[in-house]
């Protein structure tokens, strides 16, 4: 499994609001927020997982995470390590259902419905047979 652990900066800012902005100093552009600490941590995990998954898919090199002790922060902010599992994102993405629209003759549709044919299952089976896929590869 592709597991990562990156330092994140949690910053409440100076406007007195309850929320946090979360940034990852090693990953410019990876940013999220949450209305409270629990939501910010959850959003940080999601953002980090998705960001790193995208980098993997694009063939980009994942940088080595900085040591939390070396991360510069503003007053009032703090650093926390955030864990990401890109294999979970990959599994969800690859198994996501994709809707396909197809056309068949009415007489064939009527006969199949009379026999209780599950069109989705049959189409998946037929495509796997055509491609020579015996079971789903991970």
From TrEMBL:
InterPro entries the UniProt entry points to: HicB-like (IPR031807), TA_system_antitoxin (IPR051404), TTHA1013/TTHA0281-like (IPR035069)
Gene3D superfamilies, alphabetized: 3.30.160.250
Protein name listed in UniProt: Pilus assembly protein HicB
Organism lineage: Bacteria, Bacillati, Bacillota, Bacilli, Bacillales
HicB-like antitoxin of toxin-antitoxin system domain mapped to chain residues: 6-110
SUPFAM superfamilies: TTHA1013/TTHA0281-like (SSF143100)
Pfam families: HicB_lk_antitox
